[in-house]
Amino acid sequence: SQQGEEDPQALSIQEGENATMNCSYKTSINNLQWYRQNSGRGLVHLILIRSNEREKHSGRLRVTLDTSKKSSSLLITASRAADTASYFCATDVRGSNYKLTFGKGTLLTVNP
Amino acid sequence: DAGVTQSPTHLIKTRGQQVTLRCSPISGHKSVSWYQQVLGQGPQFIFQYYEKEERGRGNFPDRFSARQFPNYSSELNVNALLLGDSALYLCASSLTGDGGYTFGSGTRLTVV
C-alpha cells in the first residue's frame, strides 16, 4: 500500500511563481525526504527533515513537517523552467528495515 | 568524485530469461539499496545491503536476488523474467543507510 501520497498529481505554473506540493503519510516516521526526478531518470535528493523537526530550508526550497497531521509540504519559491520535473516524497518509516516508501509524485511544469 | 554508477543503461530481454544489473556506490558509501520504478509510479523498495549483509527486503518474489561485494558494489539479479518486470531499476547509496540517498541514473529494463 502507498505510504506517502503527493497532492496535487500535476501542477502547472509560470516562471517566477511559487509552487507548493503536499505529502500525506500513514504511519510514524524517522524522517521524510523529498526527491526530484527529471524525465524518468535518476532521483536527486533535495532535502531531509527528521521527525523532531518542523521546518527546513535549502536555497529556494522550504519543507515543513506536521507529524500530528502526518503531512509535509514542499515549497519552491521563484520557480524556473529548469524546475520542471516530478517531485516525490519518501518516508523512512520506523521499523521498516531501512527502506524508503515513495508516493506517486507530483509532476511540476514551469512555463517560461 | 563519481556518483552512483549503474550498468547497463538500457536492456531488452525476453520473457523467461535472467538479467543482472550492476551498481557502484559513491566511494566510501557502505549501503546500497535497489528500487523498481514502473512507469507513472514512485519507486518501490527491493533490497538494502549494508557491509555486504542484507538489511532489508521489500515485497518482491524470490526471483529477485541481490548481493554486495567487498568493494561495496552490488548486483541485482532477476530470474524468469515476466513482462511486468519491465521498469526502471534504481540503485541508491548512502554512508549508513539511514539518511539521504544518492541515486544512480537507473537501468531501464524492457521485457518482451
Poorly predicted regions of chain A are: none
β-sheet strand percentage of chain A: over 45%
Q: Report the end-to-end length of chain A measured between terminal Cα atoms.
A: 37 Å
Taking all Cα atoms into account, the compactness measure Rg of chain A is 13 Å
- Looking at how many chains there are and whether they match, the oligomeric state comes to heterodimer
* Total beta-strand segments of chain A: 11
Q: How would a crystallographer describe the biggest sheet of chain B?
A: 7 strands, mixed
Number of helices of chain A: 0
Overall average residue pLDDT of chain A? 92
How would you sum up the global shape of chain B?
globular
Question: Biggest interface, which chains?
Answer: A-B, 26 and 31 residues
How many strand segments of chain B? 11
Individual helix count of chain B: 0
List the topology elements.
The complex is a heterodimer of chains A (112) and B (112).
Chain A: E1 5-7, E2 10-14, E3 19-24, E4 29-37, E5 43-50, E6 55-58, E7 61-66, E8 71-76, E9 85-93, E10 100-102, E11 106-111
Parallel strand pairs in A: 2-11
Antiparallel strand pairs in A: 1-3, 3-8, 4-5, 4-9, 6-7, 7-8, 9-10, 9-11
Chain B: E1 5-7, E2 10-13, E3 19-24, E4 31-37, E5 44-50, E6 53-57, E7 64-68, E8 74-78, E9 87-94, E10 102-103, E11 107-111
Parallel strand pairs in B: 2-11
Antiparallel strand pairs in B: 1-3, 3-8, 4-5, 4-9, 5-6, 7-8, 9-10, 9-11
